[in-house]
């Protein structure tokens, strides 16, 4: 990133580097990508999954917190019409039942329509 790599390059499945980082719950890489290229935060892959959808499917709570702090779109729907929260419940990685106080507060704010952007 610091060497000006093109982090918006896509895989054959339409994934960005951010999709790949959150898939493996690499919080430090996720934070760097969000810091330098926040515009990739809500990009969807060929299945319509945003990085938050990927966090929900893989249980990437650390990365989910980072995305939510940055104000990711919590209402985004994938190609199946599912939100990240829908996928989390289906997959048993319910983001709203994590016993993580910070994540729970961010989710409450997001569900109320309040801002979840970091100031």
TrEMBL record:
ANK repeats: 13-35, 47-79
Gene Ontology terms describing biological process: protein K6-linked ubiquitination
Molecular function GO terms recorded: ubiquitin-protein transferase activity
Keywords: ANK repeat, Repeat
Any Pfam family matching the protein: Ank_2
InterPro entries: Ankyrin_rpt, Ankyrin_rpt-contain_sf
Protein name as annotated: Uncharacterized protein
Source organism of the structure: Spumella elongata
